[in-house]
């Protein structure tokens, strides 16, 4: 009898686990939850001025996200040196200047470098700039044969011809559709990109990226409150901005952090932690990015920590199936970008990323922009598909899947023309 009861209990627990892990795509199954007030301190005091926001509320929110979600960076590490590997003032059939720059870092007898691919409009002086990571190497965003191929570890991708975790000519130009280079240049903007795997390979191994340069003696992985990969990639964006401040060809005061999917989470965290970024774009960033965690819609904290245990700090795992214990939500991450311009974008078919949760996050963050007399999202009703809201805090949901399209870039450029340029 005891064995039967024990077996029944195990079956019950397994069934409960399955129920808990089921993905919610039905609004009627979204749990009741309370959205934490962006302007109410952890001690329950209302924030009603820019001064109190900047002195009290913003610092405590940033501290919480650093220690409980993305992880804090244990030490300061600046650029040791940079080298212009290649440049051409007549690139892309005379439409652009191209520059490829390696940034190098050294610490603890270890070194790391990553390469920035920079395109600038030929006729513009000190143009504003979109900065974003790519997933498979700088050479994949263009058919430009002069773009160098990374030697860093890369995830295999049969459709791109990537084998043995290494890149070659077979993958050149495979992601051109995500980067509207000519459109960006024609609008008077520069574009800079970095292969994210050069900063930290996207695997659950903290021995081969930037983390290992900052370890204490005998340390082999980050402490529970120390940075995961998203924070490491964000750190890399800030170091690129350090370089741009030294490059006379770039307007470093007008650099917009851009990112898609996991790299959209990265651009948001970069914008939150580094106020030098003039604007931030989140494209389909979903869970741990723009989407509200407490909705438990699509990808959840448990699911993302199970599939990608290295992206966030270990402390974030405390909230697996325990979103109620979070005293923040992702709209408060967005609020850390205020008063700078922010664009949150979703895709209609990308339910995994919870488009409604992304929109609501932008809406609930907007009162912080109000403090600065900047226009946020004023109404709780989501806009129709392909009918963007353009303001200091902008949002659109376009038709289609999880991707970056020309439609997205057209709207980002229009927004940047008004609020950044």
UniProtKB/TrEMBL annotation:
Keyword set, alphabetical order: Hydrolase, Serine esterase, Signal
Keyword RNA-binding listed: no
Keyword Protein biosynthesis assigned: no
Instruction: Check the UniProt entry and state the signal peptide residues, or none.
Output: 1-21
User: GO terms for molecular function, please?
Assistant: carboxylic ester hydrolase activity
UniProt-listed InterPro entries: AB_hydrolase_fold, GCE-like_dom
- Could you tell me the superkingdom of the organism this chain comes from? Bacteria
* Source taxonomy: Bacteria, Pseudomonadati, Bacteroidota, Flavobacteriia, Flavobacteriales
The protein, known as: Acetylxylan esterase
Q: Which residues form the 4-O-methyl-glucuronoyl methylesterase-like domain?
A: 225-370
């Amino acid at each position: 009898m005891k064995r039967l009861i024990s077996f029944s209990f195990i079956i019950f627990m397994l069934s409960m686990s399955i129920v808990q892990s089921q993905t919610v795509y039905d609004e009627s199954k979204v749990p009741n939850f309370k959205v934490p007030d962006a302007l109410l301190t952890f001690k329950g005091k209302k924030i009603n001025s820019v001064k109190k926001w900047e002195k009290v509320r913003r610092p405590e929110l940033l501290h919480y996200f650093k220690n409980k979600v993305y992880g804090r960076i244990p030490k300061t590490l600046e650029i040791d040196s940079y080298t212009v590997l290649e440049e051409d003032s007549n690139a892309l059939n005379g439409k652009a200047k191209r520059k490829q720059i390696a940034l190098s870092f050294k610490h603890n007898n270890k070194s790391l470098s990553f390469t920035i691919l920079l395109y600038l409009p030929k006729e513009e002086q000190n143009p504003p700039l979109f900065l974003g990571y790519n997933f498979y190497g700088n050479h994949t965003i263009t058919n430009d044969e002069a773009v160098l191929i990374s030697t860093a570890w890369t995830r295999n991708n049969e459709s791109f011809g990537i084998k043995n975790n290494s890149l070659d000519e077979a993958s050149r130009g495979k992601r051109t559709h995500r980067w509207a280079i000519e459109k960006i240049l024609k609008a008077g903007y520069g574009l800079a990109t970095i292969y994210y795997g050069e900063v930290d390979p996207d695997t659950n191994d903290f021995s081969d990226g930037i983390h290992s340069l900052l370890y204490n003696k005998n340390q082999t992985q980050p402490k529970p409150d120390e940075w995961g990969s998203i924070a490491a990639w964000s750190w890399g964006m800030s170091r690129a901005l350090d370089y741009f401040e030294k490059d006379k060809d770039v307007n470093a005061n007008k650099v917009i952090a851009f990112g898609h999917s996991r790299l959209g989470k990265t651009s948001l965290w970069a914008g939150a932690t580094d106020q030098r970024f003039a604007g931030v774009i989140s494209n389909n960033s979903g869970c741990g990015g723009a989407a509200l965690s407490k909705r438990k819609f699509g990808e959840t904290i448990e699911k993302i920590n199970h599939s990608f245990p290295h992206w966030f700090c270990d402390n974030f795992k405390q909230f697996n199936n325990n979103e109620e214990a979070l005293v923040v939500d992702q709209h408060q991450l967005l609020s850390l970008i205020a008063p700078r311009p922010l664009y949150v974008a979703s895709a209609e078919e990308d339910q995994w990323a919870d488009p409604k949760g992304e929109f609501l996050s932008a809406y609930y963050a907007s009162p912080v922009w109000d403090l600065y007399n900047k226009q946020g999202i004023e109404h709780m009703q989501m806009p129709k598909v392909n009918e963007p809201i353009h303001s200091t805090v902008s949002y659109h949901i376009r038709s289609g899947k999880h991707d970056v399209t020309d439609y997205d870039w057209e709207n980002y450029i229009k927004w940047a023309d008004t609020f950044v340029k």
